[in-house]
Design brief:
single chain; Rossmann fold; six-stranded mixed sheet; four-stranded parallel sheet
Length: about 300
């Protein structure tokens, strides 16, 4: 089977099912596992690589308003790859090629490849996506084994969190300029890790929020996982947050509990590494209760306790 993936999380699912050698094409954003970096790229983006966060937000809003996709297919490459199966998603118009374009493209390809649309909004549904891909590729046994391993790790975090006597107020941002709440599976991850997400809602999309929503919630921990950004790129936007009114008065700032993580690799990708995301988040919430598994990066502290006035 010749498989083309149209989103990074699908690429990771395909590889988790042991189908890496059958993957023949990926998106320009697919970077894990490392070997997929050498595969042909079947998508292009309309977002300039050096755009500021506010510019990206404005471009996304403009494109969505005009119903114009941010990503497009590279048809000559796709035609050359002659896929049997295309894995894409219909959850987010920002994150992948538009469904209509995928279907129109598939109808012109030799053999009319099968299309699988993934649309998870919760962690359980993300695990269900492994079954969905497995059913199309004959890897059901591998999927069930992988799901059992992932659920065991999730359950271990949940069991440890149940012992916590204090559940901190958490705000997890998916974008800084302007601020966006977390959404879909991420508030669920916060709950499982032992925190209380007061702005994002489980199973609901992320959305832009006012700064006073954050100051009203008074988060004890601020966790920043910008969609599509790594740690270094996210840190460049922190001055925007620090310039907001009453920033220094937030409990999370005063205690030095503002963290940044690679949102591109984790949290934004509804695939197997959401469990890694949970473990990274849980460790940031309480390192004594939640040890960081070997090989995972700790969240990066983004601020320090304010100096004492004395």
């Amino acid at each position: 089977m010749r498989i083309v993936s149209l989103l990074p999380s699908a690429t990771e699912i395909v590889c988790a099912l042991g189908l890496g050698e059958q993957l023949v094409g990926v998106t320009h954003e697919c970077d894990f596992p490392a070997h997929v970096l050498g595969l042909p790229k079947v998508t292009r983006t309309a977002i300039p690589h050096d755009a500021a966060s506010a510019e990206i937000d404005a471009l996304v809003r403009e494109r969505l308003q005009k119903q114009r996709a941010l990503y497009t297919l590279d048809m000559p490459v796709l035609e050359r790859l002659r896929p049997d199966l295309i894995v894409t998603q219909t959850l987010c118009n920002v994150c992948a090629v538009a469904e209509d374009e995928v279907r129109a493209a598939a109808s012109t390809l030799p053999g009319r490849p099968r299309i699988i649309n993934l649309e998870p909004t919760t962690l359980t549904e993300v695990l269900g996506c492994l079954r969905q891909v497995a059913a199309a590729t004959g890897t059901e046994d591998r999927a069930e084994q992988t799901i059992r391993q992932l659920k065991s790790r999730v359950d271990a975090v949940g069991t440890r969190s149940a012992c916590l006597t204090n559940r901190p107020r958490v705000t997890l941002l998916e974008w800084i300029d302007p601020p966006f709440s977390c959404g879909h599976w991420t508030p669920e991850l916060v709950r499982l890790a032992g925190g209380i997400e007061g702005i994002g809602r489980e199973g609901q999309p992320s959305h832009s929020i006012r700064w006073d929503e954050i100051t009203s919630w008074q988060p004890e921990l601020l966790f920043i996982a910008c969609c599509g950004f790594g740690v270094e790129r996210t840190l460049r936007d922190l001055p925007f947050l620090r310039s907001q009114s009453d920033w220094d008065k937030l409990p999370c700032v005063q205690s030095g509990r503002v963290y940044v993580v690679d949102g591109s690799a984790y949290f934004s990708r509804p695939g197997p590494r959401l469990v890694d995301s949970l473990e990274i988040l849980a460790h940031a919430l309480d390192a004594n209760v939640h040890p960081l598994p070997r090989g995972l990066p700790a969240a990066v502290p983004a601020t320090h306790p304010l100096p004492s006035s004395s």
